[in-house]
Amino acid sequence: MSTSTEQLTEQLAATTLLRFATAGSVDDGKSTLVGRLLHDSKSVLADQLEAVEHASRSRGQEAPDLALLTDGLRAEREQGITIDVAYRYFATPRRRFILADTPGHVQYTRNMVTGASTAELAVVLVDARNGVVEQTRRHAAVAALLRVPHVVLAVNKMDLVEYAEPVFAAIAEEFTTYASELGVPEITAIPISALAGDNVVEPSANMDWYGGPTVLEHLETVPVSHDLTSCHARFPVQYVIRPQTAEHPDYRGYAGQIAAGAFRVGEEITVLPSGKTSTITGIDALGESVDIAWAPQSVTIRLADDIDISRGDLLAPSGDAPATTQDIEATVCHVADQALAVGQRVLLKHTTRTVKAIVKEIPSRLTLDDLSQHPNPGQLVANDIGRVVVRTAEPLALDAYADSRRTGSFLLIDPADGTTLAAGMAGESFATTKTVTVVEDEEGWDF
Amino acid sequence: MTTVAHLHDATDSPFALSHLDSLESEAVHIFREVAGEFERPVILFSGGKDSIVMLHLALKAFAPAPVPFTLLHVDTGHNFPEVLEYRDRVVARHGLRLHVASVQDYIDAGKLRERPDGTRNPLQTVPLTEAIQQHRFDAVFGGGRRDEEKARAKERVFSLRDEFSQWDPRRQRPELWQLYNGRHAPGEHVRVFPLSNWTELDVWQYIQREKIELPDIYFAHEREVFARSGMWLTAGEWGGPKESETVETRLIRYRTVGDMSCTGAVDSDATTLDAVIAEIAASRLTERGATRADDKMSEAAMEDRKREGYF
Questions:
Q1: B261 within 8 A of B79, measured Cβ to Cβ
Q2: Measuring CA to CA, which of A260, A288, A379, B20 is 20 to 30 A from B311?
Q3: How would you label B129-167 residue by residue, b for 16+ Cβ within 10 Å and e otherwise?
Q4: For B16, which of A4, A69, A225 is closest by C-beta distance?
Q5: What b/e readout covers A277-301, taking b as 16+ CB neighbours within 10 angstroms?
């Protein structure tokens, strides 16, 4: 075995993972950007490219249509549209990437919310000729609503505006102002031409005035984690491990994935919703005993006391335990074809706990294009975003989504057929209140 | 080859997990969700590398307790003997319970008919579906990965199937955050894919890191093979070669392991995990493109098989 082989495998093993989402339509050049990232990082392999070239030719297209790489379903290829989120995987020597490529047309909100829910970074594309349009504001709003930590504004087609700095600067400023007001914590604007390759992987030779990173450099270096010891620590119990074998007669461990923050051996914890307390005596991190573990590690926690804990309970540091509640105010994105109405009985799934719940109120529906609020819509239909008030049958240890994406989020499920109705985020919609209330004309009223 | 000394980037905090730790944690979370919410889960175990990694993750997820699932193997009757031997050894070592659904039994009983091309992969769907119904399995773990194939790229981690095991890609539940919705009606089941976000390279790196034993055929060895549809198929009792096909001895290894009738070998001198990983990192073909005859049939071959209830 050669030294270079050993070095290669070592190098490949030492990378971190970034999950990110792209938003935009074909018109903005999103497929071209995604295609270039995949192609230039050598993630499109010869047989895939050959299949795409063959399919493109049989459709009468001259150039290979890179959208066919991700449009995996027959219906998508037949109609030439992307129906569903496609996940793509690529790697550079510095990092590995999971890309949720969300379609711009069909089921737009549902798909972008889905893609953004697990993303640490969102790429929003605009056409330099058109600047910030309604769709751009919608993308920014979804990223802000889902609390995606990093947003990249890729100002595309710079080649069509003579690579002019003032054009880029004006768009970047308008977008940054808008997204900042919505509470997006970090915005990076990059002037690119996906078609010509400017600032995607290689720095542009046409924009000397730009001194920032290329899209790929930014993806490779954006922090994927921060100081977790300063966050609220949260551990939803998934499963109780009790071997009851001759070798481990008394082992009792609480298995789960740390949802936020860090836990240490010796720490006093409170079990919610019961309120019982104990001390961590051991943390088993998949075969290794450790003193500290953090999100998103899957571990098994052992406690000093034999107390009643089961799936659905939450462990939190005793000094920093969330309040429990049966009344939840939240923003929901409705993702099902069937409507969600006031008075409807649903199941609410929060971390590892599923409880009965009833929709008490739908105070407003939000239009993402202009952030206007429409009071008392009575129901939400597919791709609506609205405020809801929900009463649960049992108390939940729920955080504000702004504080903890993992323990502030929930699903509403139809108990009759199991359909996922809505995705919920507890607390305020945005970090700042930029919404305006619009009173809609109601039938029977003449002004 | 450029050799870059590589540590964690300075931009990553000490809390950043390596990509293998992230993927491992996600998969373990999925196994535990299923253990917590389903009555009768089963792991589809073929003795191929992906199912071997699945079993390894399941063992870690519940240690020091035993894995709370049984295993199911759909035996095409044309499996590699080395792989069956490996399967039985692993089952015995970990004290697991294995169910076998046999395609050969279905053919012998006249319930399935051999295809003209001799390929048995598509014949697995009926025995698989009937085994799921017979044992009333409600969660079925598969080793499918989204990077394998474009229809699989659209698959959910929790994929609802009706009583005929059918997959309807347009009626999938959106999957948000790490909240998996496993609600299903009696007779329905959920296919669960813990390796959804893993790539072929991730699987190999994980095998290396965890020192997981594999069947020998994944490493370079001399074998009697013959060429068909641009692939090296192994000569043997399953039906190959035809008279027009010439058998030769070559140094090969398998990148995927399936039915002998449609799993091709690749020319390789990679006898160690390091060499295999270097080979894959440099490969210009996907593993399915290089080794699976059944996926070359049409643009939507995998989608069609999946709709009917395939893995």
A1: no
A2: B20
A3: bebbeeeebbbbbbbbbbbbbbbbbbbbbbbbbeeebeb
A4: A225
A5: ebebebbbbbeeebebbbbbbbbbb
Dump pLDDT digits (tens) for A231-276. 899 999 999 999 988 999 999 999 999 999 999 999 999 999 999 9
Task: Clarify whether residues A207 and A259 are in a common domain.
Answer: no
B281 and chain A: CB distance < 8 Å anywhere?
yes
Per the domain annotation, does A6 fall within a domain? no
Q: Do B64 and A245 touch (CB under 8 A)?
A: yes
Tell me if A443 is assigned to some domain.
no
Q: Rg of chain B's alpha carbons, rounded to an integer?
A: 20
pTM for the structure as a whole: 0.91
Strands A121-127 and A16-23 turn out to be: parallel
Query: Is domain B19-201+302-307 classified as CATH 3.30.930.10?
Result: no
Please tell me if residue A419 touches chain B, with a CB cutoff of 8 Å: yes
Q: Tell me: the pLDDT tens digits for A111-128?
A: 889 999 999 999 999 999
- Do residues B42 and B139 touch, judged by C-beta distance below 8 A? yes
Q: Is A228 on the interface with B (CB under 8 A)?
A: yes
Distance from A204 to chain B by nearest Cα, in Å? 24
Helix (H) or strand (E) holding A141: helix A134-145
Give the domain extent around A102. 12-221
Domain ranges of chain B: 19-201+302-307, 216-296
Which tokens sit at B72? 């199911």
In a domain, A5, yes or no: no
- Token pair, residue B167, equals 């997959």
Task: Look at chain A and report how many structural domains it folds into.
Answer: 3
CB contact under 8 Å between A311 and B173, yes or no, is no
